[in-house]
# Entry
Amino acid sequence: MPSPASNSILARPLAAEAPALPPLALLFRVNALQAWRRVKAVRERSRLLSSLIGFFIVGYVALAFWLFRYGLEFVITHFPGLGSLLVERLLFLLFAFLFVLLLFSNLVISYTNLFRNRETTFLLSLPVPPQIIFRWKLVESALLASWAFLFLIAPLLAAYGLTNRVAWHFYPATVLLIALFIVLPAVAGSWLAVNIARYLDRRAFQVATVSVALLLLVGAAFWLKAEQITDEMFETRVLAVLDKLLLKTRFAQFALLPSYWLSAGVLQWSEGALAAACFFGLVLLSHSLFFGCLAFTRMGGLFYEAVSTVQSRGNVFGQWTWFRQWQRRQSRFSYGRGAIERAVSLLPAVPVDVQALLVKDLRVFWRDTTQWGQTLVLFGLLAAYIINLRHFSQQLTNPFWVHLVSYLNLGACSLNLATLTTRFVYSQFSLEGKRIWIVGLAPLGLVRVVKTKYWLASLASLFVTLGLIWLSCHMLKLPLERMAYYVGAVSIMTFTLNGLAVGLGALYPNFKEDNPGKIVSGFGGTFCLVLSFLYIVASVTLLAVGSPWSWTRFGESSVGLMLGSWAGFALLSVLLGWLPLRLGLRKVAEFEV
Amino acid sequence: MIELVHLVKRFGELAAVNDISLTVSRGEFFAVLGPNAAGKTTTIRILAGLIKPTSGSARLAGFDVQQQPMEARRRLAFVPDFPFLYDKLTPWEFFRFTGQLFQMSEAQIQSAARKWVARFNLEPFLGKLIEGLSHGSRQRVAIVSALLHAPEVFVLDEPMVGLDPHHSRVLKDVLKEQSLQGVTIFISTHQLSVAEEMADRIGIIHQGRLVAVGTREDLRRQSGQNGALEQTFLALTAQEANFAEESIGVAR
# Structure
């Protein structure tokens, strides 16, 4: 806790104070201080949590590094000549996809940061030029959008460097190249955000973003569809097959893509071709300086105009007569029940008050495009991947690979679910926030409110996870008993992850915040994310080790091992699903509204 | 002083501010009243430079808010209805930050902050994080931070919300003193007693238009009501609503 106030704060000697800083530096300082205090607050609140997060970060970096190192060594040593080619193409592809993701991420974060942020409004009423506010928000958005990218690629590049036995200067040079690279999607993302804000209102922006994301998804699923390759082709025309396989990835080597400059710079430096690497570095530098300079000096006016437009617009579609007529029709009030109410009323044995709560939660979810948009993109990506599995049916005849892919699918499905439970389900109880008195004082009781939220979240997510796991089993042509095994496993994991999120959400509520993103970034949300991840890793490992169907490479599973693994999985599920929910309900029962 | 000249702000088809012209002199205490969604906050947001007017202009202390925004903002203090504060800063750090944004020297910040901190009884909270303060204390922090740079124009949107009776009184006294010292006060409120007690002139905004402006006596005469400001306000807004309905009927 901060120290209690004292007059000493006022009595500090003036000479000790630093001279006045320019506004941008002041904004950096204040926000850095805030960020530091948030980190400190987590550490002070729970040593366990901060240790857990530290362990999680170190564990991720170590595991990712080991996996990348093992994978790269495997490809390079088992496929002499071809291995290096594959690794090279992999880097081009990875950076191309990360560039698109960074662009999308910068666009969304910049939009929120520039136009839906109270700090921006506050600063605009002070004598701080809009150009300075834009500069600060650009830097802040770039940091927020890019940290995960750095976290993801650091172990890969370290593993790549060690595998290729590069010189020491490869590492600082790579850091410099990446620093230059992340400027470009940041500038492009903020420029797009400002222009979208000038021409589209919030609703139109959300619809456009989700539509573009879906289009990209469908396009990527179609473009990256695997080719049918026969065994005969594999045996007689390996290079032709490889060429065919790599044909569709050539877009990543388009010379005008910033990701190409980065990949080429990294690859050339690792091979000792320093002149060529410097050339690509200079290409990145010149573009970063040019566009960065434009953003830093010319975007202020456009930004201010966009802020005013965002806060002024009725609706961009309002210029069309048909839309205005449709809006007028919509605005005619009807006392009748809506579609969601009619659907919920069909549920058997659900009391009217619980129905009302279900209708309210479903409506709030449906009307927040950001929520279902993200859900759609996450599970859409997974569905696209699983549907593409059918193209590998000929290669996936070996039981080992079928086994491995089916468990990886279970892990991927659960990880997606964990992202959603942490992001959306955890915050549900806190989001009642200032409205807690409505449900809290109603005869329904808070315990039933939380239980209803749990069942709604569990059944809704079960609908999606069961669909995906059925699709995965179907694409892998698994027999019925194995399908039942996965269905059972994913059902237990769904109820557990939702129990964990709802339970921790009730144990660590934050009624001050209306923004689910900020609620999740607190103590309980981080704890929930870390525990969910650990639970999934442990569960998938236990289920795989105790698989009733043999891993041909490792021999038959013994009955003891199988039963032990299942018991471990059940125990983990009870500890991380039932127990937090139980504790959360107990706390809620004694909650003082 | 404040000058609004034929100010219009449209949100799509809706005219939130509809041709408002008004002059508030230096040192004048002006209160603006109006029903919900009348256009008060939109007018204030234009004054603070947060949104551009569709047409017309707003001037603060002689500077056009759109043409000379930095000059205008240097002379303005603005306390919105839900002020933004950095939760992980202490009030003292926040004062220093806002003072520095107004290019005040450390000595000026220290001196002004000490004066206002004492006045608003914020000493016990200076070293605590803002996130832990009550709604009323946060409101006082916002008001003190706005006063630090000795503004020429002070614009407040519903400033009494969350303040206890003691600090409401302190704020009223401070505003009156500032007004007497030449600071132009422009306050939007639903608390008619505040306007009645404090304001030199009162403006009533209804459906985006300034339907009445003047002293309490002027408004009473205009409304034909001799009672409290509440009756004057209700009569004037009802007259305007009837006029609007009749106009729509004629148009149809």
